[in-house]
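Batch manifest, entry 17 of 40.
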Amino acid sequence: MAKLDAEWAIDQINMFLRATDQVSPNNEPGGVFFLGTVMRGTETEASSHAHVVEEIIDRVLPGWRKSRPSTDDSYRWLRDQASRAKTALERSAELAERLGDNAPDMDAANLHPWAWDNGKSFWNTGHFHQAVMQAAIRINAETQSKLGRMDISETALFNEAFSLSDPKPGASRLRLMENDSSKTYENLHRGARALAEGLYAAIRNPGMHSPSDGGQEQLALEQLAAFSLLARWIDQAVVLKP
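Output type: structure tokens
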């Protein structure tokens, strides 16, 4: 997925802010006299810009929709969020240099699609735990489809998929490299099997019984990254049939 174009995004925000700016109406002699202010652009123009700006804010300020008021007829709240997003875009490099160690950022949108696409709507509304659960569900479903195994799922599925034993009728295997009888071949598949078992035993299964959305964005991002790695291995693996 392409990286966010900050310059383009700032331009889009500026167009929205200009269209929704409150200005004094032009009171012409002999015409209707207006008190107060009116929106500079038309309602159609403002609505069009608002749609694009909301998508931008989703990327820049994840979870912003969670505190959105039920009514925002004047665009006042959205303008405030757009201004915050604009500042974040304009000063991201400065803030990273001044406030942190300038470590590389990880963008959830660049994770493997199996780990991100199903859960991004949950993530953008601040439901980080549910986004992780959606990743686990999607990866399990894709693996079942790839192996034609609807009879087992999750931990049992991955244990069989990466098993070092030969495939059997109705039990194909996933292979990350050709079997050259090396220790690397053995370690690679044992590691993939252990990662999958750990993710589904320690994250997926407990998470389904005790979900805990509480702003734990960093923890959820790390969990998504782990599921993304598993998804890439499965996606790239070759199916070994009997």
